[in-house]
Amino acid sequence: MKGKKTMSGLLAISLLAAIPSVPALAGPVKWTNVNAYEEQNESPFNKENYDFVKFSQVYKKLESINKQSNRMKIEVKGTSANGNPLYVVTIADPASHGKFGKIQALRKQMFKNPQKAQDWIAQNPDFKVPVMINGSIHGTEFVGTDAVLQLIERFATKSDSTTKKILANNILIFNVVQNPDGRIGAYRFNGEGIDLNRDFITQSQPETKETVALIKEWNPMVFLDTHGYVSNYAPNKQGLIEPCTPPHNPNYEYDLFEKWSMSGAEAMEKEIMADKANYSGSLYRDKMDGVYIPQRDDSAGWDDYPPIFTPMYALYHGAYGHTLEAPTNDLDGVRWMYNSVMGALKHATENKQAMITDQIEIFKRGINFDHPFHREGHFPKAYILPVDEKDPTVTRKAVSHLLNNDIDVVQAAKAFTAGGKTYAKGTYIVKMDQAKAGLANTMLWDGEDISDDTPVMYDISAWSLPELWGFTADAVHESVNVTAAKVNNLTGQGTLSGKGPFLIPNSSVKAVSLVNTLLKQGTAVKRDSKGNFYALAQANQVSEAVKKSGLQIKTAAVPADAAPLKSLKVAILKDQGIWKTQSHAGTKLSLKRLGFDVAEVTAMDVAAKGLAGYDVFVYSGTEEIIALAEDMYGPNKQFGFKNAGQLQDFKANLGAFLDKGGKYVAVGAGASIATASLGLTDDTVITADPNSNGIVNVDYDGDTVTAGYGKNDLGFVFQPVWYTNTENDKVEATFSTKPDFFVAGHWNDLYSENTRDSARGKAVIVKEKDKNVTMIGIEAGFRDHTDYLFRLMSNAIFEK
Ligand SMILES: [Zn+2]
Question: Could you name the active-site residues (predicted)?
Answer without folding.
Answer: 325 (proton donor/acceptor)
